[in-house]
Amino acid sequence: MFIDGRNVPDGTIVEAEVAIIGAGAAGISIARALRNIDARVVLIESGGLDFEPDTQELYEGESVGVPYALDTSRLRYFGGSTNHWGGWCRPFEPIDFEQRDWVPHSGWPINRADLDPYYVRANEVCQIGPFIYDDPAAVSEGGQYQPLDLGKEVMTRWFEYSPPTRFGWTYRQDIEKASNIKTYLNSNVMEILPNAEATKVERLRVGTLTGRRFEVRPQTVILATGGIENARMLLLSNSIEKAGLGNGRGLVGRYFMEHPHIERPCEIMITDPSLVAPYYQTYTQSAGANIRGVFMFTADYLRKNRRLGTVMTFYKQKEVRTDIDVEEKDTEAARDIEPGIAQLIRSTSSKANESPVLAMRYGTGCATEQAPNPDSRIMLSTEKDALGLNRTKIDWRLSPSDRANLRHNIEALARAFGAWGEGRVRIRLPDRDKWDEAEGWGNHHMGTTRMAADPRKGVVDANCKVHGVENLYVAGSSVFTTSATVNPTLTIVALALRLADHVQTRFTRGV
């Protein structure tokens, strides 16, 4: 059942066993997983079924670090940011969950094996197809397409694409028709109110932009409003805990991470384009999945060289030809490639004398991992929104060491192509110490309610429960301890399904 919160009488009290705050990828996945349990579930969504500017405006805030657009990086209506996501999916690597002595504040309290069964289920929820991310045989189309053999440091891995699934549309009927779920639209949780000791949530204060006010009184609360809003909501819940609920150690909002995106950090020249499988260059149907081949770095390379991860895509740009005089600097074609690289390709290529096409030039794009930084954080601004709540203040920080890590990884890619013999890499990323602006980012908000076994190191435990609050859980990428280097949605859904399993054991029929 869908209920417009703007029509709920002032002072109404809604009783429920489970309250889920936020109807995005995490919230809808959890609600669907709980739709057949013998318990009343309330799903509370700030927006309606369609985009509305007044609701979206609640995301506006203040950026005091690397410039960051808060109001356009998320969508605030039923389905959340799945209403505009691109569908890129891939599980995290096992090393992403490990404590790495060269990455401060790394180490999840769970490992990849704990999420493996949930990744398979998440693949189904995201309508992706077969789980073939690391299966070269499955994507080779009978041996026709082989990954490039770039040695022991650089590996080909595959993303799979969701259609992309618009959760708010695809799963609307599942949520609307579930007999145990009431979904309150246009309803904003304004504060999560605990008991006097701040050890248990007692009620949720809910308001609408039209001025209505009512309460939800749940036995269990799951906060699923996104990697920025989760932190903001806990910080706003400060009637009892003045620093914010779950923030006794000052960790809520800290360790904000993104995936810096760099366009054309390098160019790749490959002498024989027929060696490049279609899946490297665009979305490609294979073995029942829509895939894209990318370059990543092996765990052995990352450990040996003490690096963070980077993922690189590439795409065909134009031919580099032998019938162009590369010494003629006044032509655009000649400026595309330095004479030294042209001569090097001529001297090493087995195809150089067979065609005027010397090589194919490929442009690249990349996303890279950030090391967790406690000074990169979400805070409350003194400015207020239309509900009278403090807006978000973000201080996103990019470190010189993160940039140096990216540069080293690109150099490793260049070495791998050089050793392969059929390609060369020209590095375009400027070698500088400062990194005080972002060329781009993935709109991936992570780390602000990080997971840790020790409450001195994180906000939630291995089951996503807030340390010290017995019935409050957090879902979404805010619980990520480290960011990995791949898009977060598949992991968000996998963690949400795992959390749903944990919560529903308390409400199993007949128990």
TrEMBL record:
Keyword Membrane: no
InterPro entries cross-referenced by the UniProt entry: FAD/NAD-bd_sf, GMC_OxRtase_C, P2Ox-like
Alphabetic keyword roster: FAD, Flavoprotein, Oxidoreductase
Domain Glucose-methanol-choline oxidoreductase C-terminal: 372-496
Cofactors named for this entry: FAD
Pfam short name (any one): GMC_oxred_C
Domain of life where this protein originates: Bacteria
Entry keyword annotation includes ATP-binding: no
Coiled coil: none
GO molecular function, one term: oxidoreductase activity, acting on CH-OH group of donors
UniProt family annotation: Belongs to the GMC oxidoreductase family.
Protein name: GMC family oxidoreductase
